[in-house]
Write a structure and sequence with these properties.
alpha/beta, globular, 35% helix, 243 residues, 10 helices, six-stranded mixed β-sheet, four-stranded antiparallel β-sheet
Length: 243
């Protein structure tokens, strides 16, 4: 049974297809990389999987259960978690408070109402920060930590939800070489019972992070396979590598 199964998924904006019949299957425990040039539809695909956008057609299943028409929070309850390309943390709150709120599963609209939480929740939040190597910064404000640490906090918040399928939207974007190395090590350490699907724009940086790769172009899957197969395919070289 596939961890994530997408069949003929479609989404249009202004009459133009952003996702145009995408189908893919990700197995339990797999590390799948989704790449493609700007405008390929990568963030839109993630937004359809999570329910942030409604699909115009097709089906999405998590471990054999269709979720295509489920609200986003119900997909979280089915074991789906994600990070975002644009960091969405509360800069004036501490790292542990951000993670604690994710543990409670609060919607963003309700987060600001909770300035103090039960001690047990903070203890659990600190345990999650230990997993990503940030326990020493638990009580530091998000605005005071490095950009790479903010990326790690977002991953911590997603892991706090105990996901079965974790979507990472360009987790290496904007990081220095040292920060990329650190975040890549963190992703590599995620337990294998968690299926990881990752979008990354920098093909050279990300190819060693997954055994199977899907290439999108204008909302379609044009190539899929192992790293060697994808790099060797003429369609990849034409639309992504530029030669």
């Amino acid at each position: 049974m596939a961890a994530l199964l997408i069949q003929n998924l479609k989404k249009a904006f202004g009459g133009l297809p952003a996702i145009n019949g995408v189908s893919l299957q990700v197995e339990p425990g797999e590390r799948r990389l989704i790449i493609g040039p700007n405008g390929a539809g990568k963030p839109t695909l993630f937004n359809l999987i999570t329910g942030d956008l409604p699909a115009d057609g097709g089906n999405i299943s998590l471990f054999g259960k269709e979720v295509t028409r489920l609200a986003a929070h119900r997909r979280v309850h089915r074991g789906l978690a994600r990070t975002y390309q644009i960091i969405t943390l509360f800069a004036k709150d501490t790292l542990e408070h951000n993670v604690a709120l994710s543990l409670l599963g609060l919607s963003k609209a309700r987060w600001n109402a909770f300035r103090r939480l039960p001690t047990a929740i903070y203890a659990e939040a600190r345990a999650v920060l230990v997993r990503v190597g940030l326990e020493h910064l638990a009580r530091r404000l998000v605005s005071e930590v490095a950009y790479g640490d903010k990326r790690r906090v977002e991953i911590a918040m997603a892991l706090a939800q105990n996901p079965k399928v974790l979507l990472l939207d360009e987790p290496l974007a904007g990081l220095s070489r040292e920060e990329r190395t650190s975040v890549k090590q963190l992703i590599a350490a995620i337990p294998r019972e968690v299926t990881v699907v990752m979008i990354e724009h920098d093909m050279d940086t990300a190819l060693d992070m997954a055994k199977r790769i899907t290439v999108l172009h204008y909302g379609r899957v044009i190539v899929e396979g192992t790293r060697a197969e994808v790099v060797a395919d003429p369609k990849t070289r034409e639309v992504y590598l530029g030669h």
